[in-house]
Amino acid sequence: MTRNIWITAAVISFAGAAFAQEHVATLRSGTPLADNAEPPAIAKVVNSDLRQVRNYPEQPPLIPHKIDGYQIDLNANQCMQCHSRTAVEVSQAPMISITHFMSRDNQFLASVTPRRYFCNQCHVVQVEARALVENGFVDIDSVLEYVKQNQGSSD
Amino acid sequence: MLGFLRKLWGTIRRPSVHYSLGGLTMGGFLMGIIFWGGFNTALELTNTETFCTGCHEMRDNVFAELKTTIHYSNRSGVRATCPDCHVPHEWTPKIARKMQASKEVWGKIFGTINTREKFVEKRLELAQHEWARLKANDSLECRNCHSAESMDITRQSPRAADFHERLLFTGEKTCIDCHKGIAHELPNMKEAMLEGSLVLSSAQAAASDDLHDYLNRHAQH
């Protein structure tokens, strides 16, 4: 009996894996390996200059403008041309967060700490494109609302 | 020597014995066309991208960098070549710039930037020359194509429109003040600031300095 259960479990998991493999969303979308897929059109970068909602408080803010060709290397950091502490008066851009001045020991430095130097390690632009896969993300406010309602009904 | 000059002067101020007045006039006219035309043709030949990129110093460094920017490749196919930005279009300033450029011939002959390392070492100085030149002529070479009068800021992003309205139209700043590094990579901006050629990017430079220190420290370990 135990043996039968094991075999059934193995068959189900194997079939499940095979099914999943067929339906993994890839950028190639079913094009045979030897062929070149027709690439999708390059999506436009959102350039509205309007700040967007953060999905959670710690989320690095999205970049609401184009950053084509912005140089960030040992020589220069072009983001800082507007977002640095001294530049915001002229640029009226949001200053980089105070956390960017903190060393890994939480000590405040005079300027940007090296570990925060490369802006687009965390901050990214958005493009006007449909999501490749469905996203089930739910905002924390909705979660709290849901919990509150369910508690209300169970109590 | 003085005798020779006196003799030459005598020859010049005496009327011609063998040649007709018409022949001399026509000859002078034709030679004028040939020499002036030749001079101008040669000058314009040095004012082309093919000429500039004929040397590896330009082709492998600055021209390679230009190729990734909007001034080389864009949606409408209008583009700037080297002399469009780096040589004045008016005749007198152009000749003045060409005379300055004899220093560049010197540099070519003696290999001032004939390796990538030498170029990187000298890049800040070279960039500063161009920044100073554009600052002094109110970004004339930018404005040869981008005129403030024809700039429709309603078609720009809100950010760009605001900047141009506040800083460009009021004459507070000129193009090069904000658009450094538009066509080539920027040199070390920290050093640029120390030498006082920068206003806006002090924090940008300070940050890059910290990174230098950090990497130096870690390179030693």
UniProtKB/TrEMBL annotation, chain A:
Heme c 1 binds at residues 65, 79, 82-83. Residues 1-20 form the signal peptide. Its main location: periplasm. It comes from the Bacteria. GO terms for biological process: anaerobic respiration. Keywords: Electron transport, Heme, Iron, Metal-binding, Periplasm, Signal, Transport. Component of the periplasmic nitrate reductase NapAB complex composed of NapA and NapB. This is Periplasmic nitrate reductase, electron transfer subunit.
From TrEMBL, chain B:
Binds 4 heme groups per subunit. Heme 2 binds at residues 85-86, 184. One of its GO terms (cellular component) is plasma membrane. The chain crosses the membrane at residues 21-39. Its cofactor is heme. Signal peptide: none annotated. The keyword Electron transport applies. Binds 4 heme groups per subunit. GO terms for biological process: anaerobic respiration; denitrification pathway. Its main location: membrane. Heme 4 binds at residues 175, 178-179. The keyword Transmembrane applies. It is a single-pass membrane protein. Mediates electron flow from quinones to the NapAB complex. This is Cytochrome c-type protein.
